[in-house]
Fold each of these.
Amino acid sequence: MVPGATAGGGGESSADGQPFDELQLMEAEEGVRMHLGQLKKDEATVQEARKALEKEKSMYVRELRRVQHEDRSRFSRRPVMNGRYLLLSLLGRGGFSEVWKAFDLREYCEVRCLRGGGREREEGGG
């Protein structure tokens, strides 16, 4: 039933008691369709925003974990290794080793240092 119509016996009527004509019914239906279309667009926008926020949340959680691992590392004071490599930030860890972003004080460039597990090595790049 269309809003404002009565559920009486004969035909449908408007709020003022006058019967709806076909044009008014078509206008009301079109209004409902337009409103429904807008609601669907709004829902799609909300879903896109939700996905973006979930992705951002995931990135923040990942960074928080990385910082926690960095703080718990035995190299958290960021020492200069071998008198050459200044540790800057933890890139990742796994097993018995950690990969740190470091600065080579001799070559003046960023490098990656693999620390732990008994073997330590340095890789250029960055």
Amino acid sequence: MPRVFLSNLDLGPVLEAVRRNGAAVVARALADPFRTRLERELRTVPYEPAPAEVGPVRQETDVFVVRDLEGFPALVELAHEYHVAVLAHAREIRGLATYAPNEIHLQRYRPGSLGITPHLDGKRYRRLVAFFTVRGSACLSVLRERAGEELARFSIGPGSLALLRAPGLGGLRDGRQFHAIMPVGDRRQLFFPVDDDYSCRCGEVPLFGAPEDDGHFGFLCFLARRPWAAGGAACWAWLWASAVR
């Protein structure tokens, strides 16, 4: 069975960057054979359109919430290996020792779509919000406020891992960052001159797979939702209208 992550993946510096800056991206985290297997496994998922507007947030995306992991062996393997990789650094950053992802959301953006405008993920999601790009390419924009200064812009493509700070990480009661996702519908050059902590030359952002690929951008998101009651079981229900604000 192919390995899940590239052999040189070290989440330590990445998690520290998330604690300090609110967001970080690993351009290549998933081993390509595993990513291909994962993409094949998720290909027939019955996505449904998300609401076009949620308060001030606008979006054009299809969603699917994984409520039963039976039939998703690659997804189960990724969830396990990701959790283990994060917990390896539990002593380094406050809050990670109790980090336990218990929801998985799949999202798909069609070619030329709006994506999702600046928003904050719900406060109920603790410690980290993590999403792995399965196919396609997009830009992740991190902002100081909803309509404020752009702090960073990352290229996210096939096999990448993006991590966002959530309440409780590093001892912060909140710490969330406004962010937006903008799908990239073709090959293009992207150069983002930002501050020293975020500077990156994204270079060419290719679409996933072969030339006949349909141009969709898709990722899966791991969330650690606070249980309904202390000591309660993990909640797998997803209320989209309250997931962002």
Amino acid sequence: MINLRAAADDDPVAVAEWGWTYIVLLSAIALFVVSFGAKVGRGVRWAAIPLGLVAAQFFLAYAAYSAAIVGVLHGLDALAIFRGRATGRTPGAEGIARG
């Protein structure tokens, strides 16, 4: 369990940011679970990628409190997540079952 007091230094804004982190992580897990039932080509793989990136973002943010250089990796991971969302492409869309 993450000690929010140590990470936030009694800052209520930082505690709220950690709350959003959990919401995003749980959303990525839900996407991954739903992908098993979806009839999309390579859907599980395309749902596992954001889950892995979001999980890495979560742990890199926590690790950045101990080593500031990890913040660079945290930022690069955020750009990778944003790139996946900003393109608007759905790589598995051609495999959607019709009918």
Amino acid sequence: MSRGAGKARSPGSEGAPARKRAGATRQEETANDQLKTHLRGPGRILRSRLPELVHQEIWAWLLVHHALSALSTRAAQAADIDPDRISFTRTLRLVRRTATGTAAFPP
């Protein structure tokens, strides 16, 4: 008896794990692009020189990215649309404008 004999397979089921991996890879590439190109800016390097501060700076960038992604996801849910339809770059610009405009409050 050969391996897998008797198992019913749906057409195209062999490619399902590969498609899942490809989707995960695409999401990682998108997140890296959002972090490196849009959020941090192209060609910018980390300012910190000490290893502990480099870790702190990386975590800060990751937290800001997560906060922006969560904001756009909530906005998409409120508008009943797919979160992938909301531009990360536009969200970033909106938050930067809003944060810059309210930064002049007195202590």
